[in-house]
Q: What sequence folds into this?
């Protein structure tokens, strides 16, 4: 499926649950919530979902198939993979900690 066949705004809506999963894990584990880091994670999620959709042969999908539903399901799987990748990430320094 070519990327021009899906709306970027609808794609982001389809990925909301996945981003919530990633964020919940980061909060629970005390990982950095730095806006640049979160933006990078959202970009990684989107790139991986787009790649999966690009590799989908729409002609082989059932008639009721929806790229939005596929994006939701794939994004959750991608989010779980990202959570696994984050397991070795060190926690963010606490606010009261001084840097050297």
A:
């Amino acid at each position: 499926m070519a990327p021009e066949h899906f709306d970027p705004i609808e794609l982001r809506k389809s990925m909301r649950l996945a981003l919530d999963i990633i964020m919940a894990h980061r909060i629970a584990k005390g990982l950095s919530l730095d806006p640049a880091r979160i933006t990078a994670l959202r970009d990684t999620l989107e790139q991986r979902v787009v790649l999966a959709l690009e590799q989908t042969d729409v002609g082989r999908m059932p008639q009721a198939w929806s790229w939005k539903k596929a994006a939701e399901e794939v994004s959750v799987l991608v989010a779980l993979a990202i959570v696994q990748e984050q397991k070795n990430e060190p926690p963010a320094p606490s606010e009261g900690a001084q840097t050297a």
Q: What stands out?
A: Residues 3-86 form one domain. Residues 19 and 61 are 26 Å apart (CA to CA). The chain has a mean pLDDT of 90.
